[in-house]
UniProtKB/TrEMBL annotation:
Residues 6-122 form the Response regulatory domain. CDD domains: LuxR_C_like, REC_NarL-like. Keywords: DNA-binding, Phosphoprotein. This is Response regulator. Residues 150-215 form the HTH luxR-type domain. The modification 4-aspartylphosphate is found at D57.
Length: 219
């Protein structure tokens, strides 16, 4: 029997919680195991419920979603977090990525994407709605600020691999990377596979998160 995906919902609007709960529980292997209306209770609620997935609003009373995520990051991350927000502010998006959020959805498209997001994140994938992904990549590509010291001092990747991870994170194609670094497309692909294996990362958005968390690209 397939185990159910245990989901906890944290939002200060009961109407939204009720709507999401009803939608999520139309999927046979989803189970909404708990809810929180107040940011100060989310960590304890999730630990008690043993949730696999936390769907977290940014605008929570008393303790906002960023602070809640920091608490999870600093103590223990017992579940995977998907941020649900009305805001597509790049500063907020970058902050939650650094704090290991696995997904970011805007509320105006949550009904269309939430089921797909839960399934993807549960399977160790990243899920960011299209408009959020576009904002992330456009900003980096238009104005990349590279941290040269972090590039040189990276403990896992070689300087060449760091160059490539940054260019992949900026959504350069293999051909574009090969021309920019004066290496063959085959070499680029070999580096890409090695990077993914070393970091256990499976997506481009995961590479962006790694670049942000390790200060390879300055926010």
């Amino acid at each position: 029997m397939t185990p159910k995906i245990r989901i906890h919902l944290a939002d200060d609007h009961q109407v939204l919680i009720d709507g999401l709960s009803n939608l999520l529980q139309t999927v046979s292997n989803f189970e909404v195991v708990g809810t929180s209306l107040d940011g100060t209770t989310v960590y304890d609620d999730v630990m008690k419920d043993k949730a696999d997935i936390l769907i977290l609003d940014i605008s929570m009373p008393k303790k906002d979603g960023i602070e809640v995520l920091k608490e999870f990051y600093e103590k223990e991350m017992p579940c995977k977090a998907i941020i649900l927000s009305s805001y597509d502010d790049l500063k907020i998006i970058k902050e939650v990525m650094k704090l290991s959020a696995k997904g970011y959805l805007l509320k105006n498209c949550a009904g269309e994407n939430i089921i797909e997001a839960v399934e993807a994140v549960y399977q160790e994938q990243e899920y960011f709605s299209d408009s959020v992904r576009e904002k992330i990549f456009n900003t980096f590509r238009d104005n990349p600020k590279l941290n040269q010291n972090a590039i040189i001092e990276n403990p896992i990747l070689s300087p060449r691999e760091v160059e490539i991870i940054i260019l992949i994170a900026l959504e350069y194609s293999g051909t574009e990377i090969s021309k920019k670094l004066f290496i063959s497309s085959h070499t680029v692909e070999t580096h890409r596979k090695n990077i993914m294996k070393k970091l256990n990362i499976k997506s481009t958005i995961g590479l962006v998160k790694y670049a942000l968390k390790n200060n390879l690209i300055n926010p």
